[in-house]
Amino acid sequence: MITSKTNQKNLFNPFPGLRPFKVEESHLFFGREGQSEEILSKLSENKFVAVIGASGSGKSSLIYCGLVPVLYGGFVGETSSQWEIIKTRPGNSPVENLANAITKPGIKENKENELIKQKLNASILRSSSNGLIEILNQTYDFEKKNILIVIDQFEELFRYKSGRKDQSSYNESEAFVKLLVAANESRDLPIYIVLTMRSDFIGECSQFHELTELINESNYLVPQMTRDDFRMAIEGPVAVGGAEIETQLVQQLLNEVSDNPDQLPILQHALMRTWDYWMEHSDPNLPITISDYEAIGKMEKALSEHANEAFDELKEDEKWVC
Prior knowledge:
By secondary structure, this protein is an alpha/beta fold. The chain has helices at 35-46, 59-72, 94-102, 111-127, 131-139, 156-159, 172-185, 209-217, 227-241, 247-257, 264-281, 290-295, 298-312, 316-321; strands at 48-53, 83-88, 146-151, 191-198, 219-221.
């Protein structure tokens, strides 16, 4: 089957490459149908859910393009369908990064005032396990908005721990976890928490008893994509982008990912590169073909060839820095 072309004049590359899909790209997100509703059910019941999966399984995209659009539809939250999405990653300074994510710059806010607000918020977060509740209560009107805190790549809490400047009297990782637990325990407040984490780090969570209980009560293990899921992830975006793709190419891509089901980002990157090549060298009235795909080095070489092209585009003095 060849996907139908919509409007040739509005052709656009629908593949994000290696990065996760953004919220505004939910119309391009295919292959995970039904899974966001399962996460939604757990979030609605517990106001917390840990989304766990292998590296490259599309956890972040599932949240931003699956769950968030459903939340905006008003299916969760007693207050309203209005949501404030706070996105953060633990990194090397989880508490400070959370403070920065919460800080809302004013309309006429200058950079200096914004930095002051960030430092103040970080100080409040560090002062008490109820610090997160206190800041959210000061910043948002709970009668008008629900709050969703997305902690992406939660495994960074453990990966960066050895290099973190934890003082003997203050454990950054433990403080961060306590902030999340306290916010979840405030059941009368419309605060919801979603974290994404690589499955190989799940054992690290056991060092935090209350976090372990939360994860045990509400977690979602992202299932491995099936062949039909991958087919939808290929054909769906192509159709939305306004193009056609040869059946032979779809079959070849499916065969190549069958032995490497966690290579979704590599597949997306190869398709992004193939689309660009097809637009530049082929007739847009014709389908994307195997020859277009082979020209970018296929999945096995798409990354390295892209890196080589990027390097060749650098100036000579920039190459020396690399």
